[in-house]
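Notebook B, p. 112. Complex prediction, attempt 2.
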Amino acid sequence: MDKMLLTLITFLPIVGMVLVLLMPGKAHGLIRGIAVVTSGIVFLLTLQLYSIFDPTALATSPHPGYDARTWTEAPWISAFHVYYRFGVDGLSTMLVVLTGFLSFLATFVGFTIKKQVKGFYALYLLLMTGMFGVFMALDFFLFYVFWEVMLLPMYFLIGIWGGPRKEYAAIKFFIYTFVGSVLMMIVMLAYYFKVTGNPATADFAFNIPWLVANHPFAGSPEVFRQMMFWGLFIGFAIKVPIFPFHTWLPDAHVEAPTAISVILAGVLLKMGGYGILRFNYPLLPEIGSTPWVMWFLAVLGVVNIIYGAFCALGQTDFKRLVAYSSVSHMGYVLLGVAVLREEGINGAIFQMFAHGLSSAMMFMLVGVLYDRAHHREIARFGGIATQMPVYFGLAVVGFFASLGLPAMVGFIGEVSVFLGAFAYNKILTSVATVGMLLTAGYILWTMQRVYMGNPKPQYAEFPDANKWELIALVPLAATCILFGILPALVMNIYAPSTQLFLQMFK
Amino acid sequence: MTLEQLWTNCLPILPEIILSAAICVIVLLDMLAPIGRSRFVCGMAALVGTLGALWFLMDPTEAVKAARATTSFGGMIANDGLSTFFRMLFLVGSAVTVMFAMASAETVHYRQGEFLALILGATLGACLLVASDNFLMFFLSLETLSLCSYVLAAFVKHQRLSAEAGLKYLLYGAVASGVMVFGISYLYGMTGTIRIPHAVGAMMAQAAQPGFGVAPFLLALVLILAGLGFKMAMVPFQSWAPDVYQGAPTPVTAFLSVVSKGAGFGALLRFMLPLFGQDVMLGSTLDGLIQAAQLPVLFAILAVATMTFGNLVALRQTDVKRLLAYSSIAHAGYLLMGLTVYTAESVQAMMLYFFMYLVMNLGAFWIVIVVVNRVGGSDLAHFKGLWNRAPILAVSMFVFLISLTGMPPTAGFVAKLILFKVVVGAGVGSMAGAAMTPAAWFYFILALIGVVNSVISLFYYMKIMRAMAFDRAEDVAPLGLSIVEGGYAVAFAVATVALLNFGPILKLVNVL
């Protein structure tokens, strides 16, 4: 059973997709039911993964750094040395559980979709397979396939069910990510050629743990390794997104339907951070630890934090504001990783988790309001708190978690990143802390404009959050608080992996 | 030549003999078949002919296998793996074209027997072209292919576009052939032989001599490239392609984009084959001729020009047939990248690319045929709302388009992956220890231009997708596809996805 777990998690959504496609197009209830049940079972399976995953055994595992019990490996295309190879370490286990959780909740958010329900859920389930595959594939070829497979349903989910500028947003998202992936492909091919050049090692051509352990390009020209590092980095930076590759994000997030914004912010952005931690640094640690590269990336992270926060401050559209807050929050991830210190990396990973919960929740909150008001202009709202008290209570949790209030999930990651960064460079970190102030500024100001003030008559008959909205929002609010108080529940999972990660730089 | 010798010589070209017989049978059947039934009767005969030929090609007797290393008819026909592989592609492509033609409404009022006989005739020319080991055979079979193609392009003669396409094709083609014959005569004059490997081999031997001037060889090569580049739609010999692709009946366009292009490409490989199997590097270890003539640079320039031109011009197209014409020019460019590396691996990568290209391109053209039949045209506007009107067509087309872009999980991804692997690999192989060499930069930049082109191509492929999925059509009635229409689309889409598992195809191209 354990051996099948990763395969089941990845491909069960495909089974659900086939079932959805077999249903008559008018049977909306049935289709939604299948989607909920499928993603529910998948979520339970990810919890099963969480429960059997033993972070302390990673160092002594027969597949160093990866969980031995769930490791899955079989030849796929022998002539090209492609393997079907799945495995998880602490980082991927955490992200898989997060993905399972968010994609289960987002299924309920998708209930507001009224047109072409069948197509929506079929693509949604396909997207799930792509996401899980990306986080668990340990064969470069397989990873690349999943990376692109996830792209295709996303294009349609934004382009068909999105807002007014959906076509522009969808194609922009598609092309940005595709640029990144073709650069990744060149790097992958360089590794393939180098490794297959020696018949003794040929079979490891796409084997990520092997490539990480053996550094086939150790003696190659420095400039070539730099090119490979930046090729990979741009591919992942687009996804994170890191300034100046972030411009697809506000468009895609704003135009996407709420359920898809939740997935985009909660899961897809994490793929960039995951890729940087899984590929960029481990494959080329000597480039990542070059002083000027560390410095450059740390500055880029700070730019992300400050720039994203300023952009968020200037927005008049509620959803766009939340989108820019993601740019700002993901800057912490880059800053934490770039300094290559244990606190920093643990903080960066926790920030990925925290942002997954809080940004997903914020997009849901915006969606709830949009479904009632049919506009998202911050200036036209006001006094929602008195009209929708339950919803307001949840909104307070979501926004304060994002703000980084102590005892909330957002706080832990930011503080931990700053601890690492402060040891690296005090001035840079001091500049970055301005980002926290700005974050507090735009979040409090937005809450004041939207929720406080006198109730407006045109919003008087707004019903409070309904049961489907509560099903999606309450678990997120609960986890935002729970993991703010007990961060060790998450940190213990990936902390041993971070230590293994840092050993590469010694 | 005794009767027995004749039989041994004929065995390897049994597929071509079957094709010739099928052509005669079709012409006769066309006269005998009841009026209105000739399309079906002749079509079945053509299918039996092509598939029969394919059967004999793919399931050879021991005698044929033993003859692989030899030539037939005193050095006229080469029986090697290269010719076997490309003949297989052409027979598959032609069988599919026949199936398309039987279902297309564009040619329904014209004489079916002639149409199918011409398709088989062109296939015969293409098969013999890649199999020819002798410049005479080479030119004759190229002309057989060309003459049949001219007529096919102009087949819907009452339509201005089709007639114009035929005339343009003929005029350009005649010039290209003439130039090529001049190049062949030049090579013959220099080496004194019309056997292809002997002539190229003589040039290679001369290159080893001191004081060797490369200009004569280069001149001959460029002149021959004019003729073959015309067939491949390579820049600067591409200008006929958009008009002909747009004007010709769609099954013919599919045929030209696959079989005719493949014939040009296979013939070029046939000509260059003696040069392959050299060391990877551009530096001193390359064969003297390749190095002296700077062949990697020449082909890199042609490749970059061809793919960039095709992709950039395709961006502005609104007719899907014309768009696919430019797309096929771009694909010729990707293929030419393979000719910058002179290893056996590179030939295999090009062959594999062509195989994948055949599947996805035929699939895309089938969707165009159905849309032309049902909606009445191949303009982007005719594709609007297809997502709702005929989801099967739209999803299949989507698979073909992402495959043409080169994204997984499709055949096109594998094709690009393996081709780029050869180029990137040449770059990695050219690095000297801890220093970059000019050759390494050359190959990395070429690969980068290749992938940038893939990204550009995404724009125009997505234009079709966008029309199908996002735009609303005025007429929203479902198309109500027939089993054949939906079935072909699904079959090609499944094949395009299934070819992601390309292990078996690697074995197929592993013939050199």
